[in-house]
Amino acid sequence: MSPEHPPWWTRAVVYQVYPRSFQDSDGDGIGDLGGVLQRVDHLADLGVDVVWLSPVYPSPQADNGYDISDYTGVDPLFGTLEQLDDLVAALHGRGMKLVMDLVVNHTSDEHPWFVESRSSPDSPKRDWYWWRPPREGMAAGQPGAEPTNWHGFFSGPTWELDEASGEYYLHLFDRKQPDLNWENPEVRQAVYAMMRWWLDRGVDGFRMDVINLISKDVGPDGALQDGPALPGLPYGDATPSVVSGPRIHEFLQEMHREVFTGRREQLLLVGETPGVTVEDARLFTDPARGELDMVFQFEHVGLDFEGSKFRPRPLRMRDLKTSLGRWQTGLADVGWNSLYWDNHDQPRAVSRFGDDSARFRRDSATCLATLLHLHRGTPYVYQGEEFGMANAPFGGVEDFRDVESLNHFAQAVAHGEDPAEVLAALRRMSRDNARTPVQWDASPNAGFTTGTPWLPVNPDHVAWNAAAQRDDPTSVLAHHRRLIALRHDDPVVASGDFTMLLPEHDDVYAFTRALDGAALLVVCNLGPGTHDLAGLLPEARGAEVVLGNLPEDDPAVLRPWEARVLRPVR
Ligand code: TEU
Description:
Strand order of the largest sheet: 9-8-7-3-2-1-11-10
Helix content: 25-40%
Bound molecules: 1-O-alpha-D-glucopyranosyl-D-fructose
Oligomer: single chain
Structural class: alpha/beta
Largest sheet: 8 strands, parallel
Radius of gyration: 24 Å
């Protein structure tokens, strides 16, 4: 990455739209493209540069669109292809870009490719997916007869029996999401053609869903290996065989040649890569290798639970510093980081890492945002995060809709866990916390729909909504505007080197960013305590406040959940 001409996305901020919950325009209680078009002004006002649109393709919605049955269409639930073209035009008209969600590790089981593949063992598309006979010596359907012992991301085995052929097909996620076989060049070429089709239509890049799972560790004879046993479960861990597999870099470089050659610079390519390491990420995001611009790593959103996300434990600040610091250092000389707290798969950060009580919600939301946006990398803002949306007050299991949560509840209870404890974990960690409708105003359905929302609106919307914050300079929304403007205006924020300070401190997260002799000192108090800043960081003395989340007061004292961006005196 040439320091003289860093790529445009090093100065960009990306906004994620989860269309199902963003804005409904036809009163059916489900968000849609008409709704996104209605809110383009909000995105322009916020100052974001790119919109990442979660899937709107035709889908049976088993996993809210991450199960696609037609890659080159729009589900009528969400609107029309014409409306998508209108959205591309509307965003381009305001200098923003649109990135589509590319879900090609798997399709829906209702996709014509899978319907054809399943139709017969002799189907010309049989090898487009992973079909295997029962485990040697076992009869199809017998417990344990699955070809490997792999545990799925959404609980249960990763193999589904097809009674007609007596064979099993692989699905790392839900059984209605069969994995594509990327070993088959026909599959890869079909995906590349689809991607070119979207780029020719004007979209500006892709967020690639679980892209580091497309290469499976398969033997020359087609053998797939069992995984190490998982504690308390009759399954094994699939990740050694499916995460960043042996041909992953070959596939991504081929994709690059086949799809992006000649139009690379204008695009944004971000890969979602569960289980990725810093070492892997250096390979994935090294511009010289022609693979991805950045990846979503999961380390910092995996520090507050043990093994399964549904075994939450307290977050130790030191762990967060160590993790984020390691990724900053690890990609300092090559590659690039993506920066996020929230997305459609994570519970709301202000409830998880901050303090969503009335006293500290605004302060902790703006403190967390400052910390994130001042790191080196491309920040992602998830819908509603810009005005401090929090986790929702879910009750019983009947309140949840997310396949991952419901499958986990069923499996955990079936394995003898106390339903009340499992529910408590769901309330804290379920993805549905991120999927409640966006709170645009204080009206009954928060301005999201005139119908009945598919998931209830969080009752706290009466106080916490966009309309209440739009003209309030002290609001979470106003603070996000300022953070985004600072990244656009100050090259130190976009390109400055990162240095962690106070690595051992349990509450204060501090670091510097430096570029060509200019420097910023960032100090964030991630807790309800008060700290002696002058004592902790003498270099803060006399520094100019570039941006703070609290009204200026005693410069020597760091107040609860206070964040300051300082320009130290030279
Ligand atoms: O998520 C992949 C993924 O890693 C998450 O499922 C994760 O394991 C979990 O939810 C975090 O707790 C991607 C999409 O973002 C997700 O919405 C889809 O459900 C999944 O892939 C399958 O397409």
